[in-house]
Design the sequence.
């Protein structure tokens, strides 16, 4: 069975730990890597031999915002088809405005509790 590969781009260590725990609880074949910096993530994707199936992306990131990251990602043909899921503490309406220019981007507001996070991730993956 093929593994699903996820790249989480988030600079909040606590949120990353919670995300990894939620993924682990799904009992699916999922490999997750984390980048704490959107610019670093983009540079790593450009040279990667294995691309992720999903990128979970926080919008407020150092060096390169989430919107700038998506814009750069979509401009590179080899990377443009990766499914991006905006995963942020902004309200859903704010996220819709921030990602309005990008089709094929899913969004969800970081849930307030673990079971909701697990449920949301299970629905996406």
Sequence:
């Amino acid at each position: 069975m093929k593994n699903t590969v996820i790249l989480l781009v988030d600079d909040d260590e606590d949120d990353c730990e919670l995300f990894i725990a939620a993924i682990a609880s799904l009992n699916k074949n999922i490999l997750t890597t984390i980048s704490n910096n959107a610019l670093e993530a983009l540079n790593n994707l450009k040279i990667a031999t294995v691309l992720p199936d999903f990128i979970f992306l926080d919008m407020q990131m150092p060096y390169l915002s989430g919107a700038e990251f998506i814009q750069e990602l979509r401009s590179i043909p080899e990377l443009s088809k990766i499914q991006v899921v905006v995963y942020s503490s902004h309200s859903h309406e704010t996220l819709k405005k921030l990602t309005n220019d990008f089709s094929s981007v899913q969004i969800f507001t970081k849930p307030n509790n673990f079971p909701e996070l697990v449920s949301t991730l299970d629905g996406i993956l």
About this structure: The first helix runs from residue 13 to 25.
